[in-house]
């Protein structure tokens, strides 16, 4: 007769058997095993202290193998049962591809209600752990033919419980470990390129928004590389020392706000919007300071803070758009991408929507799309500034030149001549002046009209440019009077230049109405500037005296003022 104690024992075994068989079970019968999307169960240990024997008696809830449970599930147990329907024993591998972001992992392997094996990974000491491979925990286990192996995984996270389980055979396990993260590497590579490009722009423009944009990019690429496992895969770095880099999630919006203040000049032109940005900036600064001491606690409200930040920045952008800021429409396009994709990510991290590529990668996609738009804004702003500068240069040029001949006017000549005189003093180089006057020009105007006179002046001006050096300063002083200032030219060099001009003008003709040909000449006076004792004005006066002497001697000739005497060359 069966005793009461034995009956109770068999009853317990029967109840446990019912519980085990009620578990969602994966049937492994196919030759290839590559399971990435299947049903598992989870139990949240609010006490964070339950051991394996206690947890296995708890009620588990179904979820998917890639799941997110938000910030209130710091310690969560996952359970999956694998049944081998094949005739041979199967050796499989449990992958935890998101293990790089957790604090600790414990795995328990159970078969026939008996604990077969267990493994523990502390991420602070996981660089050389045999089960850790580039941020992925790989746990090998066996399932005998016709039997069920139950795996329990205890996940202890820092802040957000987002997790993934995969089961592979040997071949697919190797493939999974070799591939992956190419999309994240591409995003990071794009942002690094933008950092270098923007650095070059800073050296070219010295605008502070370029520095703020670079810091925003650096914060974004650090967070992307950290959150999606690129740092773990590349450097095998995990645990507390790496988790602190999640502060980049706070510095990123800080630099974005500062960039908005700089690029839109809110302090100077939009005080109301500036105050809203300042308040948001203060909240982020407090969170950052708190995160230095307790990053896990600081990240818990990070999703809510990110949602608030998106509302504030989007509202400010709308306000600036309605006030007609020329750049904000482009910012709105990029920021809309940022808000939409980060909205999916916030819902994902809070465990409010099902995991998916867009939701799990929303922050990275949003950052890159906005970063590209911000790069366009900076480039477009540079174009606007260059257009403004070009118009200003054109206005300056118009103010400095004679509208008819396009030579410099008297005012510009005297200003630039002062600079060239100081340069001649410091270097000891010679400096000479040539004064030019068109012979009988009044007769040309009186006989043929001012339009023909203008043609004559235009042709003579072109000759001045052609037969002088590029560094020579050529100006129209008024009417038919011109002056040339020749740096690094003594009297002999100036005389050769004057002769070239005189001969070229004498050989030039202007055909007027009726086929009549007009030929004009010029008289020229030269003086070398004594840079140590006199001004350019004094030298111009001496060149004028030489010019008048040339006219007295019959015109179409060059006269040089040398010391107290005038030397005439015909």
Tell me about this structure.
By secondary structure, the protein is α+β, with helices and mostly antiparallel strands. The chain folds into 3 domains: 19-178, Immunoglobulin-like; 182-393, Rhopdopsin 7-helix transmembrane proteins; 410-569, Alpha-Beta Plaits (2-Layer Sandwich). It contains 20 helices and 22 strands. The strands form 5 sheets. Strands 1, 3, 4, 6, 8, 9 and 12 form a 7-stranded mixed sheet that branches. A 6-stranded mixed sheet has the order 16-17-15-20-21-22. Strands 2-14-7-11-10 form a 5-stranded antiparallel sheet, with helices on one face. α4 (182-205) packs parallel to α15 and α10 (271-293) packs antiparallel against α12. The longest helix is centred in the last third of the chain and has 39 residues, at 362-400. The protein is rod-shaped and about 125 Å long. The termini are far apart. This is diguanylate cyclase. One of its GO terms (molecular function) is diguanylate cyclase activity. It catalyses: 2 GTP = 3',3'-c-di-GMP + 2 diphosphate. It holds the Pfam family 7TMR-DISM_7TM. It comes from Marinobacter vinifirmus.
What is the structure about, briefly put?
With 570 residues, the protein is of the alpha+beta class.
Task: Supply the CATH superfamily name of the largest domain.
Answer: Rhodopsin 7-helix transmembrane proteins
State the CATH topology of the largest domain.
Rhopdopsin 7-helix transmembrane proteins
Shape: rod-shaped
Q: Tally the beta strands.
A: 22
Tally of helical segments: 20
CATH architecture of the largest domain: Up-down Bundle
Number of domains: 3
